[in-house]
Amino acid sequence: MATILITGTNRGIGLEYVRQYAQDGWQVIACCRQPATAENLNRLTIQYPDHIRIYALDVADHQQIDQLSTTLANETIDLLINNAGVYPPSDDGGFGSIDYPAWHKTFQINTMAPLKMAEAFISQISNSKLKTMATITSKMGSIADNQRGGSYIYRSSKAAINMVAKSLAIDLKARGITSVLLHPGWVKTDMGGAGALISTEQSVTGMRRILKEITLADSGKFFAYDGQLIPW
Question: What are 112-152's pLDDT values in tens digits?
């Protein structure tokens, strides 16, 4: 039975990933900062008690990441999904009103954490059958696609994680590990807002279809949820 580890699972896309993979019989390791208050995630655990385990994890805390890896040292992780991410409200301020402390925090979560997760769980992933890492990024991290400017903090953090995941694809190829980037679309979540275009179910279903079909030859690619490749 395949095992998946997902970060940022208390709501939105992460929660939907947990639901769909548990429903399909995977062993799901669901991580979030505060499991005690993650009501929807806990309800899923009651629904799928044999398939979901919840662990507390703040991805900005590298010590916590290392501790979790130690706890799960004997696991094999077929698929790691780096889903946890932030879009700081202060990013709407634009040029001339940048919240630099928020920028630093955003890089910790959106850019540094996925690489730290890869480093911490490399053994568990290497020992698995599927050997896949997927990082949830954004089309807003595409330099070629930037036609509107602004959103300096979020855009730069996602452009940076795109480079990280691309380097992982090169550095880990010899181990047979696939590293891909996934743009979930404009999704109706707390981050996406009510005006978004698609549901979490549509987004995750599309991304799962990609993850099911990719091979090592696709490592380093930047996919939209509908399967289209996004320019860097």
Answer: 999 999 999 999 999 999 999 999 999 999 999 999 999 99
What's the mean pLDDT when you consider all of the chain?
95
Q: Which two tokens stand for residue 223?
A: 């996919």
Architecture of the domain whose range is 3-224: 3-Layer(aba) Sandwich (3.40)
Q: What's the confidence (pLDDT) of residue 159?
A: 98
Task: Using alpha carbons, select from 53, 36, 57 the residue that is nearest to residue 44.
Answer: 53
- For residue 122, count other CB atoms closer than 10 A to its CB: 18
Element (H or E) spanning 182, and its range? strand 178-183
Domain locations in the chain as residue ranges: 3-224
Helix 12-23 vs helix 39-47: angle between axes, to the nearest 10 degrees?
0
Q: What is the dihedral of CA 210, 214, 219, 224, to 10 degrees?
A: -20
With a cut of 70, say whether residue 192 has pLDDT above it: no
Query: Phi and psi for 94 in degrees, rounded to 5?
Result: 75, -170
Residue 1: both structure tokens together: 């039975």
In Å, how far are 18, 96, 141, 167, 173 from 4, measured between CA atoms? Answer: 9, 42, 25, 22, 20
Q: How far apart (Å, rounded) are the C-alpha atoms in residues 20 and 51?
A: 11
